[in-house]
Amino acid sequence: MQDPLAAVAVNDVIILDGAMASELERRGCDLNDALWSARVLLEAPELIRQVHYDYYAAGADVATTASYQASFEGFAKRGIGHEQAVALMQQSVHLAQEARDAFCADAARLAGRKRPLVAASVGPYGAMLADGSEYRGGYGLSVQQLMDFHRPRIAALLAAGPDLLAGETFPCAEEALALATLLRDEFPDARAWVSFSCRDAANLSDGTPLADAVVALADFPQIVAVGVNCTAPRHIAPLLGEAARVSGKRLLTYPNSGESYEATTKTWHGSSDPGAFADAARQWRAAGAACIGGCCRTTPQDIRALSAWLRPQR
């Protein structure tokens, strides 16, 4: 079964992008909203396109769309109907595709690079709740109920033609199983990665061992990579070790910058350093990660630092 990530791998390494929402905030956007970065799809889509371009220019092989917080339920709470919600979700994919086209049109920038990918972000059910549930899990929903939630947004995103889906920040194994089952039963041509949020060096946010969640995806070939995101960097190497112990799939990680997040106040504490982030990534690579990038509070500078180490020939 074809793995789109293989098309951009160099020495079996793929560089992912960094944060979207916090980067938009850094550029002046107000994301104090239940829609989070999806709000910018309504208000300033050109900024999303520019962020994607800047990540490609920094060395990213994959851009992840600004659809993490986009859901029919979330848009409906803002008075946005089904058709407009579909258009906004698909716009998130088109913006990344447009950024890629612009990047690829610049022969000097593209020199020595493979044509990068667009991964359509499928955020967790908890992101729609906008209450920090993606860091706790325990939704109280069945796999079937989670399939019903994800089905229409996956259909909308896939219709826009991304290279793959990015199921990300899943706090529980049931949500990953829901995505994998949907692809197997209803979207057989789609490919996806699944990335979990974890609360410590061994367990998902809801307490399930990461190894158990990864094993449950073994028989789903459409899931082309598994790993961890939106998790403190200090936990990443042991988590990757757990995943590598039980899975033969490509491993990925894109942790937070190293700052700590307080979900109740929605504030970040601490500091970040691109050089330190890139240095930490050496441990993640040694632990088996083939796809490496950043999540919350990482920037194009972090991805540039990663690229300088992973692809020094560029």
TrEMBL record:
<keyword id="KW-0479">Metal-binding</keyword>
<dbReference type="InterPro" id="IPR051486">
    <property type="entry name" value="Hcy_S-methyltransferase"/>
</dbReference>
<dbReference type="GO" id="GO:0032259">
    <property type="term" value="P:methylation"/>
</dbReference>
<feature type="domain" description="Hcy-binding">
    <location>
        <begin position="2"/>
        <end position="310"/>
    </location>
</feature>
<keyword id="KW-0489">Methyltransferase</keyword>
<feature type="binding site">
    <location>
        <position position="295"/>
    </location>
    <ligand>
        <name>Zn(2+)</name>
    </ligand>
</feature>
<dbReference type="GO" id="GO:0008168">
    <property type="term" value="F:methyltransferase activity"/>
</dbReference>
<dbReference type="Pfam" id="PF02574">
    <property type="entry name" value="S-methyl_trans"/>
</dbReference>
<protein>
    <submittedName>
        <fullName>Homocysteine S-methyltransferase</fullName>
        <ecNumber>2.1.1.10</ecNumber>
    </submittedName>
</protein>
<feature type="binding site">
    <location>
        <position position="296"/>
    </location>
    <ligand>
        <name>Zn(2+)</name>
    </ligand>
</feature>
<dbReference type="InterPro" id="IPR017226">
    <property type="entry name" value="BHMT-like"/>
</dbReference>
<feature type="binding site">
    <location>
        <position position="230"/>
    </location>
    <ligand>
        <name>Zn(2+)</name>
    </ligand>
</feature>
<keyword id="KW-0808">Transferase</keyword>
<keyword id="KW-0862">Zinc</keyword>
<dbReference type="InterPro" id="IPR036589">
    <property type="entry name" value="HCY_dom_sf"/>
</dbReference>
<dbReference type="InterPro" id="IPR003726">
    <property type="entry name" value="HCY_dom"/>
</dbReference>
